[in-house]
């Protein structure tokens, strides 16, 4: 009988984050947009403006 060699499989490497995952975080009466890349926007009293900051970051950072 002969040895059967299976094809070598390279180790799996998690895919690099290409998409920015921006969210909003509440800090007291302020809301801050933050991203998985480490970016953070200015503190806002308006949640809507913080969401806009996050969306702007997602579209310009891509």
Structural class: alpha+beta
Number of H- or I-type helical stretches:
1
Alpha carbon gap, first and last residue: 55 Å
Uncertain segments of ≥5 residues (pLDDT<50)?
none
For the biggest sheet, the summary is: 2 strands, antiparallel
Oligomeric state of the chains present here: single chain
Shape: elongated
Biggest sheet strand order reads 1-2
State the order of secondary-structure elements, H for helix, E for strand: EEH
- How much of the polypeptide forms β-strand, as a percent range? 15-25%
Number of strands: 2
What's the helical proportion of residues? 10-25%
Radius of gyration, taken over Cα atoms and rounded to an integer in Å: 21 Å
On the 0 to 100 scale, the average pLDDT is: 81
Could you outline the blueprint of secondary structure elements for this entry?
Layout: E1 23-27, E2 30-34, H1 47-61
